[in-house]
Amino acid sequence: MKKRLALFTGALALTLMAGQAGAKVSQEEADRLGKDLTPFGAERAGNKDGSIPEWTPAQRRGSLKGEYPNDPKIDGEKPLYTITKANMAQYADKLSEGHKYLLSTFDSYKMNVYPSHRVVTWPNEIAAATKANATSCEMLDPDTPNNCKLGFPFPIPKTGAEPIWNHKLKWRGEAVSRYNNQMIVQPNGDFQLTKLVEDVQFGYASIKDPVPLTKGSGEFLKYLSKTVAPPRLAGTFILVHEKAGTGAEGRSAWLYSPGLKRIRRAPTVCCDNPYEGTDGHQFYDQVDMFNGALERYNWKMVGKKEMYIAYDSNRIAGPQTKYKDMAKPRHLNQDLPRYELHRVWIVEADIKAGTSHTFKKRRFYIDEDAWTIALVDDYDNRDQLYQFQEGHLIFGYNILSATTVPEVIYHLTSGRYFITAAFNEDKPLDLTASFKPDYFTAASVQKMTTK
User: Fold this and answer.
1) pLDDT tens digits, 270-302
2) Does any domain span residue 351?
């Protein structure tokens, strides 16, 4: 009897610990927001030597339409120093494994490091909602946030899944329409260009009409992409309705192929299936650095650390840089990126027993101010670094939001790399986009194909 009681007590303790791991924070912890923490959960103070400054939030400026990312003060700065193969050991503790690989493998690879700036902020409504979420929002399991509304759900994260959800649910405006130019870059620098137009309606992070997440219910995003070039891919549509949860409950997806001339359900629009038209160079769950269900992995919070990440990347995202300027043999043209020292949350995802994915392990580096995934080290089933994802972070003063433009996926075994989310030679993001209620439906897409 005593033995069974001990077993029961131990099991109960583990259950309580599991529940606490995804629990909301205390009022005392939440009261730190807006004080020693920013209203969104980052440390307000800089670091001891001043190489990371105190948070100084930006003021909104600019138009919601026709604005490329820019900051005249930042854009005119010169590098403080350059990290190369010769001196990388000096900075190794602040480099991802992906950056170490590129520096040690290619003499031509370098990282120009600039002064760090911390101006990323979000609208007042997001700040207020984030404060409320801190004491109400909880993680029932890695795919089921509960009692969350509008703001960052987990400003003071306790588990590995929580920073990932902050990234997935961040404010990006009410809706957006954008060009997405993609390049498969061969080892000799030649590249193939694919052009998409993407429309997104945000549900959860909508100030006008937020869709709360309660026990995982709530459609937080609708997405539609249309491939417009090259001709062999033109006319392909992908439609996604994104919810919390797993499988069909979490994501509904449809694909229209010009060859079939009809739209059909597409459960394969997920996970490590190749995105249409990328020739296997981008998995569906690598869009936006990471998206979709978390169910295939165990998520571990490693902690926070100072790291070099691509930041304030206005030059590489702006119209002065052409696509041919980016693509160089073996790696991106490293005269273009701007690197800064920032504090990032590190989260590791390890494949669950009984599930499968091309990546056995993924290590995510998430900027503390932007709640945006900046880097991902991806490991294969032999525990070897297999791919490296790098997002070049920009801040939109016109919308008060951050994202990554462009994003790069290095395929380390083939010498090829993939550039995505670039719009340099097209119009910038249209944040005035407005869509009719039936726009993101299969029937609507079918009608578009006949026009």
Assistant:
1) 999 999 999 999 999 999 999 999 999 999 999
2) yes
